[in-house]
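Chapter summary example.
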Amino acid sequence: MRLQLEFFIIIGILLILGLVSMVNLTQQKYNDTLFTKELEFTDTTLTEVNKQSMQGRAFTTYGVRDSDVLTLHQIQYYTKEIESLCANRGVFIDNKLYLTGNVVFNNQEGFSYSSENAIYDKKTKILDITSPFVGKMLQNSVTGDTLRYDVVKQEVLGNQIESVVYTAEK
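The structure predicted for these 170 residues follows.
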């Protein structure tokens, strides 16, 4: 009886040692997210140029470039055609500037449009205001749901427009 009991104890110990050797006792932590931040800056002026001239300028209080996406806070954007385009946050993806929070667009004719969301396509030079907006010039005012402004042609298209326009008396 003693031999059988010792035999079972030896087999049990060997099984336990085999199982323990198969289990990895060290815990390795793997970081699932890769560090992709390429650039971070504060209080900066960004200037876009080509071989002939300056294309545009952007002033920002804080910016980050991460995975080819440039995010700017408190952005002020200027070009030859745009007097100013300001927002709390701007995100450059490819050739589009996505603006959110207190978006204000001032054009060369003196109109000032304000909204919460807008998209400026640098390639086509079209500003799409995608949320309700208010436009003002002196006493004249325009409100609507959405607006499309062609910066080059200086043409405006809008949806659900209401306006008050004052004309000179004759």
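To summarize the output: Residues 37-164 form a domain with the lipopolysaccharide transport protein A fold fold (CATH 2.60.450.10).
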